[in-house]
């Protein structure tokens, strides 16, 4: 391995670039592993020794061609059974952008796995088999993406080679999906006709579909704008840790360490500490060793305040002009992720930002049927992979935003206090974005089931 | 046709963009502070290798101007590169830290572990590691593992719950949602924490260059007496190489990883600066582990099997 001059010329390509986090969703056998494998392979993100390992195992099993799914199925049991058991994270880069891919399995435990992958994703790729069109599972994936408020959704209509690369097949599926997902409030939908197996429109443009003028999957991933909405929202600063060196050099230093969850903070700004409601002014911002006048989400910084007030882990610092209300009654949509059920009356812990408090499940008003988005009233309990509305009473007030306004300060976990199991992923406020803002709020037929 | 076509945006026009490295740094610092806020007795696994060096650098930044509120733990295989041990001790002293050492050699001398026929000590680290965690009662153990290293590691959580035997069960992992890490555990259990989960090898090197972090010299090209075994250049030494059939020769090499001398291979390289190393990594067609780790080649699921046993 010797460096040469033409290699050094490419170095500029590896300078600071933006990061896109995305998740894939698809049912078993619609070619998701092949798409991921193709994306990694054709973008030259698979290194020689990894490919050699895949070729060796494929040959050993008597397969004609390397099985690209082996690139992503990392566990013994996954390779033995040819299925994906758990979410895996993949990393690859092109000259334009770096990517973190949450590769989520499509089988039985789909909801909790897709929720896990989608919770941090800027974009979700929903895969459809062109022969089958939009099926229940597709609607489920669209609904989860809408619920988690993933900003961009890509519909990849796969196996176009098996429908003669016909534009009409693609157009019908794209139209049906776009109408459905738009109704759920998915803000941006891009449909791309592909064949993951043949490589059409994954990385390279297809010669078989000259009627399609849009981007390939990779081109779209490279150019879709990464949301900077975080900084347009009011500032939220959950306090993680209090830094007090008490050293000869820093006898009076008292800093509040945390990661800015949303918005922008400036020196001189009047702030309120929640839940206590005490107020002060930002005296200084230390951005990992450098003193700055301004900092924004998602930077990890340390704030110093003018007044010596009682602040500890779990408190939230927000601009006094735009501080959230606090509440002990939380209404939210939850996705149940544990095997043990969640019943009305259950005593749980709620972890919201850096704050963990006791809580009790007062009501479970409804459970959502993702297939047709109908609601089942008062189910009494939620079991694994259920999505439902809950009303939770907390022992101490929480400064909670609506999930629609902030994925970071509007989300929470419900935890079993007995064994620490993560029970549910919670999203405060309304479930789905309303397509028409003018819809009458009291309309019981609306998406807020 | 209702399909929308993606808009091409110039990424540089965003007023509050964070660079890729800044985003990774911020995320890792957040993870360090979460652990400091929620655990009683965390420890950082520190080998003097580049990943653990980056972890320590991040921890120093996360708590400045206060000291790092964690101790360090090194599992010493007894076959470490002397330059790396020298770096380790110098770094510990420079930052006023406390280092615990769990020694594979001591376990062998006491008859509690047996030397393997191939002389490789990497798999032997698991027992001293897990016993040190139990006896010193650590409840959070920072590791420098990255998901890009290996296919089993791609499945690892940032907060990875381990039972009282330190075992990893990939089927029973907690879902990890948003940035809400659940570190709750029963007495005797602990959590492995991986702040560099989302970093790649190239990210680590670019960060080292940006921050001007000092590394042990073996990461840069130098002449060394090595010999070829299983397609890998290994350093001659008292650990059991070369055998009679193996011929030592002096080559210009460097290391991509540091670990036990018996299974850590060198790569041919003339990269003597960070820029040259980065240029080399950027175009390498071999993964870091594929190029340099003999122990991962033992079986198709070598890493998974060791992780299940409690390896980091």
UniProtKB/TrEMBL annotation, chain A:
Magnesium found in the keyword field: no
Annotated Pfam families: GTP-eEF1A_C, GTP_EFTU
Superkingdom of the source species: Bacteria
Alphabetized GO MF terms: nucleotidyltransferase activity
UniProt keyword terms in alphabetical order: ATP-binding, GTP-binding, Nucleotide-binding, Nucleotidyltransferase, Transferase
Enzyme kind, highest EC tier: transferase
Keyword ATP-binding among record annotations: yes
Enzyme Commission no: 2.7.7.4
Domain Tr-type G: 17-231
NCBIfam families in alphabetical order: CysN
Descriptive protein name: sulfate adenylyltransferase
Organism (species): Streptomyces nojiriensis
Lineage start: Bacteria, Bacillati, Actinomycetota, Actinomycetes, Kitasatosporales
TrEMBL record, chain B:
UniProt keyword Transcription present: no
Name this polypeptide is given: Sulfate adenylyltransferase subunit 2
InterPro entries noted in UniProt: PAPS_reduct_dom, Rossmann-like_a/b/a_fold, SO4_adenylTrfase_ssu, Sulfate_adenylyltrnsfr_sub2
Keywords annotated in UniProt: ATP-binding, Nucleotide-binding, Nucleotidyltransferase, Transferase
Recorded superkingdom: Bacteria
NCBIfam families the record matches: CysD, PRK05253.1, PRK12563.1
PANTHER family the record matches: SULFATE ADENYLYLTRANSFERASE SUBUNIT 2 (PTHR43196:SF1)
Protein species of origin: Streptomyces nojiriensis
Molecular function, one GO term: nucleotidyltransferase activity
The EC number(s) this enzyme carries: 2.7.7.4
Annotated Phosphoadenosine phosphosulphate reductase domain residues: 42-265
């Amino acid at each position: 391995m010797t460096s040469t001059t033409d290699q050094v010329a490419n170095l500029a390509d590896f300078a600071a670039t933006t990061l896109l986090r995305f998740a894939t969703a698809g049912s078993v056998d619609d070619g998701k592993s092949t798409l991921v494998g193709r994306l990694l392979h054709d973008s030259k993100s698979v290194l020689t020794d990894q490919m050699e390992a895949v070729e060796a195992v494929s040959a050993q099993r008597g397969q004609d061609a390397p099985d690209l799914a082996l690139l992503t199925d990392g566990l013994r049991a996954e390779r033995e059974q040819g299925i994906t058991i758990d979410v895996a994270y993949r990393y690859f880069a092109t000259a334009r952008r770096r990517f973190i891919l949450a590769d989520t399995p499509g089988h039985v435990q789909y909801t909790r796995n897709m929720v896990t992958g989608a919770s941090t994703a800027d974009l979700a790729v929903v895969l459809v088999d062109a022969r089958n069109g939009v099926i229940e599972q597709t609607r489920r994936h669209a609904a989860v993406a809408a619920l988690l408020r993933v900003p961009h959704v890509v519909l990849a209509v796969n196996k176009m080679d098996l429908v003669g690369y016909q534009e009409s097949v693609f157009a019908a599926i794209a139209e049906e999906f776009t109408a459905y997902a738009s109704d759920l409030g998915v803000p941006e939908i891009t449909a791309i006709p592909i064949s993951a197996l043949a490589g059409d429109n994954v990385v390279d443009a297809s010669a078989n579909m000259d009627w399609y003028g849009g981007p390939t999957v990779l081109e779209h991933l490279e150019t879709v704008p990464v949301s900077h909405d975080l900084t347009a929202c009011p500032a939220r600063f959950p306090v993680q840790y209090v830094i007090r060196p008490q050293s000869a050099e820093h006898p009076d230093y008292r800093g509040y360490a945390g990661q800015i969850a949303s918005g922008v903070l400036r020196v001189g700004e009047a702030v309120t500490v929640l839940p206590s409601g005490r107020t002060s002014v930002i005296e200084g911002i230390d951005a990992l060793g450098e003193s700055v006048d301004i900092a924004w989400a998602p930077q990890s910084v340390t704030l110093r305040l003018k007044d010596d007030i009682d602040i500890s882990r779990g408190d939230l610092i927000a601009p006094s002009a735009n501080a959230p209300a606090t509440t002990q009654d939380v209404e939210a949509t939850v996705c149940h992720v544990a095997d043990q059920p969640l019943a009305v009356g259950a005593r749980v812990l709620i972890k919201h930002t850096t704050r963990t408090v006791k809580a009790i499940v007062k009501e479970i008003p409804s459970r959502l049927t993702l297939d047709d988005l109908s609601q089942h009233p008062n189910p009494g309990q939620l079991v694994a992979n259920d999505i439902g509305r809950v009303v939770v009473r907390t022992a101490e007030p929480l400064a909670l935003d609506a999930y629609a306004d902030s994925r970071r300060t509007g989300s929470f976990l419900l935890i079993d206090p007995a064994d620490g199991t993560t029970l549910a992923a919670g999203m405060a406020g309304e479930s789905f974005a309303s397509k028409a803002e003018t819809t009458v709020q009291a309309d019981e037929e609306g998406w807020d089931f | 046709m209702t399909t929308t076509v993606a808009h091409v945006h110039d990424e540089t026009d965003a007023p509050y963009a964070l660079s890729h490295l800044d985003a990774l740094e911020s995320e890792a610092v957040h993870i360090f502070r979460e652990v400091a806020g929620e655990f009683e007795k965390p420890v950082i696994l520190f080998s003097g290798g580049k990943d653990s060096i980056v972890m320590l650098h991040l921890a120093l930044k996360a708590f400045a101007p206060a000291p790092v509120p964690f101790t360090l733990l090194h599992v010493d295989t007894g076959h470490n590169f002397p330059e790396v041990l020298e770096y380790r001790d110098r770094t510990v002293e420079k930052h006023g830290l406390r280092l615990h050492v769990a020694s594979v050699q001591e376990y062998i001398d006491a008859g509690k572990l047996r030397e393997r026929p191939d002389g490789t000590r990497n798999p032997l680290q698991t027992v001293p590691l897990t016993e040190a965690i139990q006896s010193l009662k650590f409840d959070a153990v920072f590791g420098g593992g990255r998901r890009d290293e290996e296919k089993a590691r791609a499945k690892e959580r940032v907060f990875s719950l381990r039972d009282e035997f330190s075992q990893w069960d990939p089927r029973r992992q907690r879902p990890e949602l948003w940035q809400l890490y659940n570190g709750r555990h029963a007495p005797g259990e602990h959590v492995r924490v991986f702040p560099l989960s989302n970093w790649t090898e190239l990210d680590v090197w670019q960060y080292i260059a940006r921050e001007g972090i000092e590394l042990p010299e073996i990461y840069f090209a130098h002449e060394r007496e090595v010999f070829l075994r299983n397609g890998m250049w290994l350093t001659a030494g008292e650990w059991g190489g070369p055998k009679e059939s193996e011929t030592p020769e002096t080559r210009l090499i460097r290391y991509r990883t540091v670990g036990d001398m018996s299974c850590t291979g060198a790569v041919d390289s003339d990269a003597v600066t960070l820029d040259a190393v980065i240029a080399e990594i950027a175009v390498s067609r071999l993964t870091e582990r594929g190029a340099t780790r003999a122990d991962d080649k033992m079986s198709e699921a070598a890493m998974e099997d060791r992780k299940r046993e409690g390896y980091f």
